[in-house]
Amino acid sequence: MKKQFLKAGWLGLLAAGILTHAAWGQSDPTGKRRVTSTYAITNATVITSPGQPGSKATVVFKDGVILGVGSGIQIPKEAKVIAGDSLFIYPGFIDGAGNMGITKPKDPERPKDFVSSNPPDEIAGITPWRSATEQFSASSSQVDDWRKAGFTISQVIPDGGMLPGKAAIMVLGAGNATNLIQINSGLAANFRGSRGMYPATAAGVMAKFRDVYQNSTLALEHEKMYASTAGVKRPQVTPTQQGMAAVVQKQIPVIFTAPSDLEIRRAIALQKEFGFKLILSGLENYETVIDLIKSTGTPVLIKLQVPDDKAVKAQKSEGVTEDTKAQYARVKEAYEKALKQAAALEKAGIPFAFSTSDAKAGDAMKTVQTLVKNGLSEKAALAALTSNPASILGISRVAGTIEKGKMANLVITTDSLFKEDSQIKHVVADGFVFDFEVKKKAANGNGKTDGAPAGSVEGVWEYTSETPAGSSGGEIVLKRTNGVLGGTISYDDPAGSGKVTSPIKNAAVNGKTLSFEFDVNAGGMSLTVSITGEINGNSMEGSLSVPQMGSFPVKATLSSPSLSN
């Protein structure tokens, strides 16, 4: 019986019922459970930090920590191997001052003696004692969406008024874990007034901020005096003053959301007045204050989105007046300047990061690529996604680059990150591997994809695959029929009775990368298995992916070429 099980190879795992247990393995999209905590991604192009050239290497991690990166890394016996051939590995993306997974708190009831000119702090949106951890859900669909876009860490800020509470830094790992990296990493603030009560305007918010800050400073001084001097009246410290203490003592920064140049000036003015640590967040229109930002050395988080171009596209070329044409020109100029703002920050030598707040996860990489097209270097763009936010948030010791001892947070793509057709295939967050569907490019009628000839892969390939059950293999027969690449693949019967053959579907060639799928019936279950590999001459190395079980290394050799007509 044991020999029969081993003969069935990787498909024997399914027939033996192991699929039931492995379906909740770490490399399933939910990341809820994992079969092993040790992984090795082999022979991938690894970009360890911004500006570094990619080199072929293996990344090994265990229990969410990177054990090693390099070409001569020893792979532990218990490691689950993911073939990284033709794949690129980048440090996991980091979000500053985002709102993914944050739920809106319940509005407090107004007291019967409510006075709009002097409302209680909580009703006026002044709640610095709150924590984003109280509102964050790691199982939120927003978290799933942003993780799919490559984000592995987010500093989330709570929802609320002018001082909604403390930010927390979360890793976007398993939904059933705490995911907390750092609590109370900054105090969120904005110039949002309160409706129907004081402070209702931006000027009112600034005045109220001054009042809260000064009273909190006095409360701390009173506490210090009471602790060291006899006969001093016991201080009456409010929750607001307690919540502000870490800011007044310069232990944490104020994260001021300031989309416009005017709000940026106001936040910097308050910082100069009181001397607290400041991070500017959610910047949208900042081109005119770049010199001011540089002179103050203030860290900045720009919004991960570009302005809408509908107004530019809606412009008419005929039948308009000269005044309208001039207006069109101003609109277009403003739009183009907005796209070049990030590049201007780089030129000024200001390291910046991104905030995902109110942005769309599906547009993330398109936005970054648009900024690159408008003058931002790829090095600066990658830094804004990785090392810069790690530095701004104070977590460079554990995140931002791919190094031994840092968190296993990785983005694994099908091509260089900044190519338009590059796709994210895997994301590793806190050592949990999340797999995502990679869309295949449509082949043309000549069996080509992006100009790559299918004829170079036609023939009989003898392949082997290594899995926890041992080594197994068979033949891959590739040929063109009516100009379309297809064929068959043989493999060990899951029931243990010789070889069976299945037709190949969705075959495609992109450069040196061959990919295809085939269906398998194992234990009454129908599964679609995929193979992706990089071809070098008459050999191929890649991965064989079994749904809900993960990926296993596969190698093949072209034994009989030229089956095509």
Folded structure, characterized:
The protein is α+β, with helices and mostly antiparallel strands. It is built from 14 helices and 24 strands. The protein is 24% helix and 31% strand. The strands form three sheets. Strands 1, 2, 3, 4, 5, 14, 15 and 16 form an eight-stranded mixed sheet that branches. It has an eight-stranded mixed sheet with strand order 6-7-8-9-10-11-12-13. Helix 5 crosses helix 6 (239-248).
Major beta sheet summary: 8 strands, mixed
Average of per-residue pLDDT values: 86
* Secondary-structure-derived class: alpha+beta
Count all strands and give the number. 24
Number of helices: 14
Radius of gyration: 28 Å
- The global form is elongated
List keywords for this structure.
eight-stranded mixed sheet; 565 residues; 31% strand; single chain; 24% helix; disordered N terminus; 24 strands; alpha+beta; 14 helices
Topology:
Elements: H1 2-7, H2 9-15, H3 18-22, E1 38-46, E2 55-62, E3 65-70, E4 80-83, E5 88-91, E6 93-98, H4 141-148, E7 151-156, E8 165-171, E9 180-190, H5 202-228, H6 239-248, E10 254-257, H7 261-274, E11 278-283, H8 290-296, E12 300-303, H9 310-313, H10 322-339, H11 341-347, E13 352-355, H12 364-373, H13 378-385, H14 387-392, E14 410-413, E15 424-429, E16 432-435, E17 459-467, E18 470-481, E19 484-492, E20 499-510, E21 513-522, E22 525-536, E23 539-546, E24 550-561
Parallel strand pairs: 1-4, 1-5, 6-7, 9-10, 10-11, 11-12, 12-13
Antiparallel strand pairs: 1-2, 2-3, 5-14, 7-8, 8-9, 14-15, 15-16, 17-18, 17-24, 18-19, 19-20, 20-21, 21-22, 22-23, 23-24
